Automatic annotation (TrEMBL):
Gene3D superfamilies: alpha/beta hydrolase. This is Pimeloyl-ACP methyl ester carboxylesterase. It comes from Rhodococcus jostii. It holds the Pfam family Abhydrolase_6. Residues 25-258 form the AB hydrolase-1 domain.
Length: 268
């Protein structure tokens, strides 16, 4: 597995498909998840003619543990280092969960000059609920902003219980290898930094074609976040995947693959 050494740690990545393909798709996994969480999307993207790059930023997959002091800006810098090292032009970024907002952190810091489009899978651009944004993490508001993610990602009581998901759970475990673990202090610090961010201004100011995908049964936030985020974007679209939780791309891969293929056909 090739890697890139940056000031903030090592980035591992794997390239799939024809290296001569006209377009490259970069896959950014969710919080602490491995690049293998995209295993059900890679064949579909290759079949559509894309070169696919599965990325493990520090703290993901086989990459080293997350360094202390990692923030969303750090993640933007890691992604920028990958884009520069591989000299990607006209790339498509697809991010799930925190990987989705890593896209906006990158756009905020480095612009869209190397990008053709983006897909964000079940990630609200603002996790904090406020009077003007009611699509944040369930229970996370001004009263809980400093304590909510102190030790864990809290259970919300929303969505289908994981033990009742049948094949959805089988797919999730096959892609992730696990569904939960204890978070390290650097991971908790990054989670809190991520949770306090508001990427709505970045979305409003970017003309990047973007598809927001939501799981109808997301454990974390209302699925209406996708349409609300798309309404902010000058060139935005949205879709809700039925009977899918937060791990939408793993639980309902066929539906996600179809939505992504249709979007990229028109956007790239």
């Amino acid at each position: 597995m090739p890697s890139i050494e940056t000031g903030g740690g090592r980035i591992d990545y794997t390239v799939y498909g024809d290296g001569r393909a006209a377009s490259s798709v970069v896959l950014l996994a969710g919080f602490t998840a491995p690049a293998t969480s995209w295993r059900y999307q890679i064949p579909s993207l290759i079949q559509a003619g894309h070169r696919v790059i599965g990325v493990d930023l520090p703290g993901h997959g086989p990459a080293p543990d997350l360094p202390h002091g990692t923030t969303m800006q750090t993640r933007a810098g890691h992604l920028h280092a990958l884009m520069e090292e591989l000299d990607l032009q006209g790339a498509v970024l697809i991010g799930g969960s925190t990987g989705g907002n890593t896209i906006w952190s990158y756009v905020d810091a480095h612009g869209t000059g190397r990008l053709a489009a983006a897909v964000v899978v079940d990630q609200t651009p603002r996790m904090l609920n406020t009077p003007d944004w009611t699509y944040g993490f369930y229970g996370y508001d001004g009263d809980t902003v400093d304590t909510f993610f102190a030790d864990v990602i809290p259970a919300t009581g929303h969505g289908t219980p994981i033990w009742k998901r049948g094949m959805r759970l089988v797919r999730l475990l096959a892609a992730m290898g696990r569904v939960d673990r204890t978070l390290s202090p650097p991971e908790l610090a990054l989670l809190n930094d991520h949770a306090k961010r508001d990427w709505r201004p970045t979305i409003r100011s970017s003309d990047l074609p973007v598809l927001f995908v939501a799981g109808s049964e997301s454990e974390f936030w209302p699925s209406a976040h996708a349409a609300a985020a798309a309404a902010l974007a000058p060139n935005g679209a949205s879709t809700v995947v039925p009977r899918a939780g937060h791990a939408t791309n793993m639980e309902r891969p066929d539906s996600v693959n179809k939505a992504v293929a249709e979007f990229l056909d028109s956007a790239v």
